[in-house]
Structure formats: structure tokens, C-alpha cells
Write a sequence for this structure.
């Protein structure tokens, strides 16, 4: 079985969660392609938040190519109550997902269910199969084992 773990992160929390999910998949014998979304131009927080609020996509350096993996994992922050421009670019340009399973995790100061749902909607229009999704608070990352536990729980829900 194969998985692609795609994430966007500026200060490292989403990367930390993406790594924990990759480790959990690896421990299950699943080979992981680990991909960071990188915009062509770096924007500061103000322009980034403005683009997110206006639902504008970023221009990405590379658009990850998906093969025939069984699982797509997307880990991303909330900016201005919306998905980040980099994630909008990724989900908007996705090829057909052909019914593959997806884990979609969104991190913010607050748990933004509406952002989770808007990403899920884009994933479904691209032909996603079952989606396991969650909105998580970044403050919870400080709790011992939280990141490892949530990674294990998401993988169990998606795969068992
Ligand atoms: C420009 C910007 C806008 C943000 N807007 C929100 C927001 O509207 N709601 C929220 O809960 N968190 C918001 N956050 C917090 C981020 O979601 C949080 O810092 C992020 O998930 C941390 O991810 P990272 O460490 O992987 O970069 C914002 C952060 C930034 C930088």
C-alpha cells in the first residue's frame, strides 16, 4: 500500500502533524511520499491572510503528481477563516482521485469545521472516496503525545 502525505506549514505545526501521520503509516508498512506545498513567492502574514480571505490561490513551485497510491493525506492551516492560498491551489488543481481514501486535517487557533468542509467539498468534486477529516487546535499540540495520538486515530479511522 502507498500513501502521499501533502502539507503546508510556515511555523512547523502542520509539518509536525504530517510527520507524525507519516510515521504512523510507515509503522503500518505503508510507503509514504512526503510532499511540502511551496508557493513560488513568499508572502507575509498580511498578504497571505488577505489572499486566503479573498479565496485566491497561490502559484505553487510544484504541483505534486499523484500516482496510484491508496491514500492521500492533506495537513494544512487555517488562515483568515479559510484554507491557505497554497492549499487552495493544490485542491483546485488535483487530478481525479479515482475513489481513493483521504485524510484531511486542518489546524488553527480554533477548530474550523467549515474550512474542513470546504476542503472536503473540493476533494469530493475531484472524486475522493471515503474522507476522514478533523479540525484541530494548535494549542493542543503542547499536550504530551497529542500529535502522535491524533495521527494514530486518523490512520485507524481511515484504514482499519
Ligand atoms: C496569516 C495567518 C492567518 C491566520 N488565521 C487564522 C484564523 O482565521 N483562525 C484560526 O483559528 N487560526 C488562524 N491562524 C493560525 C494558524 O492556523 C496556525 O498558526 C497554523 O495552523 C500553524 O501552522 P504552521 O505552524 O504549520 O505554520 C492564522 C495564522 C496566520 C499566519
Amino acid at each position: 500500500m502507498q500513501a502521499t502525505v501533502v502539507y503546508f506549514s510556515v511555523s512547523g505545526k502542520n509539518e509536525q502533524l504530517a510527520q507524525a501521520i507519516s510515521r504512523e503509516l510507515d509503522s503500518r508498512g505503508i510507503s509514504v511520499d512526503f510532499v511540502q506545498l511551496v508557493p513560488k513567492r513568499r508572502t507575509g502574514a498580511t498578504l497571505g491572510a488577505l489572499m486566503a480571505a479573498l479565496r485566491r490561490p497561490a502559484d505553487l513551485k510544484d504541483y505534486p503528481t499523484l500516482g496510484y497510491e491508496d491514500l492521500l493525506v492533506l495537513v494544512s492551516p487555517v488562515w483568515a477563516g479559510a484554507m491557505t492560498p497554497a492549499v487552495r491551489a493544490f485542491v483546485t488543481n488535483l487530478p481525479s482521485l479515482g475513489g481513493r481514501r483521504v485524510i484531511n486535517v486542518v489546524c488553527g487557533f480554533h477548530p474550523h469545521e467549515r474550512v474542513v468542509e470546504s476542503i472536503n467539498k473540493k476533494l469530493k468534486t475531484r472524486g475522493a472516496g471515503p474522507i476522514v477529516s478533523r479540525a484541530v487546535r494548535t494549542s493542543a499540540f503542547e499536550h504530551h503525545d497529542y500529535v502522535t495520538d491524533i495521527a494514530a486515530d486518523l490512520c485507524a479511522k481511515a484504514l482499519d
Notes: The CA atoms of residues 79 and 90 lie 15 Å apart. The chain has a mean pLDDT of 96. The helical segments are 13-27, 45-53, 85-92, 113-125, 146-159.
